[in-house]
DNA sequence: TCATTTTGTAAAATATATTTTACATTTGGT
DNA sequence: ACCAAATGTAAAATATATTTTACAAAATGA
């Protein structure tokens, strides 16, 4: 799972903490997802996409994990 | 999280077990997701959407959970 | 340079997804 | 009615996401 959250945050200039607030998770969760440390739940993926007004498919992509 | 997996399966006439196979999870996982017993991971959501050739956004939707 | 905000990271605890095994119910065809 | 395939479901085990607390490093502005 890759994603362009960092880019969207820049575009909307929003901090990790602000985004975390809006989607009801902790800052660390956003940080970890941005860094691809682990994948979000589908629900969280949708919430984040909604904040930026983009489709989940445009924000995330499946980088062939085995 | 709602989804139209059952419809897509019908359209492609594919069984839960077949779909499970294609996306590398168990039949029970597909069954539970169809029944909205729990939400899939984003990765799984993408894999399922890919099988049907649709966008994640078209297959799943966020039915305002609190 | 100093102070403040933002980001990176980590370990332990908790919540949730997924597997495994197993059985019951429904559905479709004959 | 019978048989087989498909679906529904459940409990315990395991994997993975997310929280909490806490600190270190980097970035930004004055």
UniProtKB/TrEMBL annotation, chains A, B:
SUPFAM superfamilies: lambda repressor-like DNA-binding domains (SSF47413)
The keyword DNA-binding is annotated on this UniProt entry: yes
Domain of life according to the entry: Bacteria
Domain HTH cro/C1-type: 5-59
Pfam families named in the record: HTH_3
Residues in coiled coil: none
SMART domains: HTH_XRE
Listed InterPro entries: Cro/C1-type_HTH, Lambda_DNA-bd_dom_sf
UniProt keyword list: DNA-binding
PANTHER family, per the entry: DNA-BIDING PHAGE PROTEIN, TRACRIPTIONAL REGULATORY PROTEIN-RELATED-RELATED
Protein name stated in the entry: Helix-turn-helix transcriptional regulator
């Amino acid at each position: 799972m890759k994603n362009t959250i960092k880019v969207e945050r820049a575009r909307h200039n929003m901090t990790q903490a602000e985004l975390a607030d809006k989607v009801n998770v902790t800052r660390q969760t956003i940080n970890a997802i941005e860094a691809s440390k682990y994948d979000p739940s589908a629900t969280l993926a949708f919430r984040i996409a909604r904040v930026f007004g983009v489709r989940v498919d445009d924000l995330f992509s499946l980088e062939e994990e085995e």
